[in-house]
Design a protein that fits this description.
Elements lengths: L6 H12 L4 E4 L1 H8 L7 E4 L3 H7 L11 E6 L2 E7 L1 E3 L11 E3 L3 H6 L9 E3 L4 E2 L4 H6 L2 E2 L5 H7 L2 H13 L2 E2 L1 H9 L9 H13 L3 H11 L2 H4 L1 H4 L7 E2 L2 E2 L4 H11 L5 H9 L4 H4 L1 E2 L5 E2 L3 H15 L4 H12 L11 H11 L4 H14 L8 H14 L12 H8 L5 H16 L6 H10 L1
Helix pairs in contact: 7-9, 7-10, 9-14, 10-13, 13-14, 13-19, 14-17, 14-19, 16-17, 18-20
Length: about 450
């Protein structure tokens, strides 16, 4: 069968063929070609050694010990790797040594899953020693050879198996999944950043809900997000509660129903109630409460963000979406209250905050995405946003501060104006010159 290949790929194949070297397209590229999907990453393997590869494509670059030569093509990188066998793995991630081979079957034998252990030759022939095409047809994720050995070689494969199953909407082979459960603790050997990347790919998939369920069934979720695991089994029962799900189940359903494709927003939805185990209390009337669980949850997600090495911007967004998810929705809120909400959440996060609220509603058993109060609240936000208000709208300015305090220009001026602005944000009636001039002296 002939496959439609980009010209850049054909050129690579042709160059190696003319140099009388074997060259194959391998891995996910072959899988995606067979599935009729767009190929985003093109990887190749060849019997040429790294120094020989560089002679064939002198514009390539080589700076690793695994025989991979990179070639910049457009906005991406083609990776061309010498066929290899791998030695013992000692850090559950990388082989201690590699040895070159000229047998494509040997190279495919070291790969993770059968659907990735496929090669396409320059003449269009599929090399498939582990029946990966059958597993593609049956929508099955299966380890190459002994699954326990594969996972002990590279523990990141534990979560990658679930990620592939989630992204492709496949099932996981029973023997492979049992090996994942048996070896789940090995995920502790993997850098948090690598775990984060796989977790976010699961959250970005078409069905993150099932992906997180599989992570929990495997025992991996309990290790990478113990703060979330505590929520399972914690009930929201009492005379004033009619909840049919425990907090963990509710968190999963909130994720499922949150109308956002942003993995960070979905992460916030999953973690929105993570502070409840620390704030649970049973009142005299037998009602179960979780007062200030949003505050506690905000602190917890800051720790999670730090462990996963999220960027400052990502951390700020995650924190705000969890910390302020209990925002009050009322049809008669004042402009000041609306501005305070906008200030707390951030103008750029309002739509995402609303998405989390929708997920929270539907995840709690409510049948509708919104309510008339929520719609009125959103309308009030639009109305207030039409009335611009910033520090420059204060009835005093930096010159007034310098004059009243008899000080020169400096950072303190901005700090005082910011405090005045926050006061006026709370109560717009305070935005009068007489009051503000008096407050300048008191701050």
């Amino acid at each position: 069968m002939k496959y439609q290949l980009p010209n850049e790929v054909k050129i690579i194949l042709d160059k190696f063929q003319k140099a009388q070297h074997q060259i194959y397209i391998v891995g996910g590229a072959v899988r995606d070609l067979l599935m009729g999907k767009e190929v985003k990453d093109w990887d190749f393997t060849t019997d040429a050694k790294p120094e020989e590869i560089l002679k064939i494509i002198p514009e390539g670059f080589y700076d690793n010990k695994f025989g991979t030569v990179g070639l910049a093509v457009g906005d991406g990188i083609f990776e061309i790797t010498t066929m290899r066998k791998e030695g013992v793995y000692k850090d559950f991630r990388h082989p201690t040594k590699v040895s070159w081979t000229n047998q494509i079957e040997d190279d495919l034998a070291r790969r993770d899953f059968t659907i990735n252990a496929l090669a396409l030759s320059e003449d269009g022939q599929i090399v498939d020693p582990f029946q990966g095409q059958d597993d593609l047809d049956h929508k099955l994720i299966k380890a190459v050879g002994d699954p326990t050995k594969r996972f002990q070689e590279d523990a990141l494969r534990l979560i990658r198996a679930i990620r592939f199953a989630t992204e492709l909407e496949f099932k996981t082979d029973a023997v492979t999944f049992q090996a994942i459960k048996k070896n789940a603790s090995l995920i502790k050997k993997i850098a948090n950043e690598r775990i984060r990347d796989e977790l976010f790919k699961i959250l970005e998939s078409m069905n993150p809900y099932m992906g997180i369920i599989k992570l929990r069934e495997s025992g991996i979720l309990q290790i990478i997000l113990p703060q979330l695991e505590r929520c399972f089994g914690l009930q929201q029962e009492g005379p004033k509660h009619d909840r049919i799900y425990d907090i963990g189940e509710h968190s999963l359903l909130t994720l499922k129903h949150t109308p956002s494709e942003d993995p960070l927003v979905r992460f916030a939805a999953l973690l929105h109630d993570v502070g409840k185990p620390d704030t649970v209390a049973t009142q005299a009337d037998k009602n179960v409460t979780f007062y200030n669980h949003d505050v506690a949850g905000g602190k917890i997600v800051l720790d999670i963000a730090k462990r996963f090495n999220l960027s400052k911007k990502q951390t700020d967004k995650l924190y705000k979406l969890v910390r302020w998810h209990m925002f009050t929705v009322s049809e008669d809120q004042t402009d000041s209250a609306i501005r305070r909400f906008i200030k707390n959440v951030g103008l750029e996060n309002i739509e995402d905050m609303t998405a989390v609220r929708i997920g929270d509603r539907l995840g709690g058993g409510t049948q509708t995405e919104t309510s008339w109060r929520m719609e009125k609240f959103q309308q009030r936000i639009k109305e207030v946003l039409k009335k611009p208000f910033s520090i420059t709208d204060l009835k005093v300015n930096g010159n007034d501060v310098m004059k009243e305090l008899k000080i020169k220009s400096g950072p303190k001026i901005g700090e005082i104006l910011q405090k005045l602005f926050e006061e006026v944000l709370e109560d717009s009636s305070k935005n009068n010159q007489k009051y503000l001039l008096e407050r300048i002296k008191q701050i």
